[in-house]
Amino acid sequence: MIKVIGSKNKVAFFSLFGFKVVFLAKGQEIDEEIQPIIEEGDKVLIVDEEFYETLSQFLERYRPKTFPLVFSLRRPKGKGLLEKLLE
Length: 87
Prior knowledge:
Rossmann fold, four-stranded parallel beta sheet, alpha/beta
């Protein structure tokens, strides 16, 4: 299963497409929230960049394992395609 993790205003959109979404508040203790998610056996985690740095340190202990795959949800630097087209 794929889970998307982050602040509500950034990841709620993913629930429209059937992804499981986990909302975290800024400053929330991420280790306590992530441990049960990893133990559930999810294969892919997409993480809001606000929490990615903290999470990547936590996941160091899981590096020898194949799963979970962890991706950062980042906004591209500079202007996006839509912004360029609208110029």
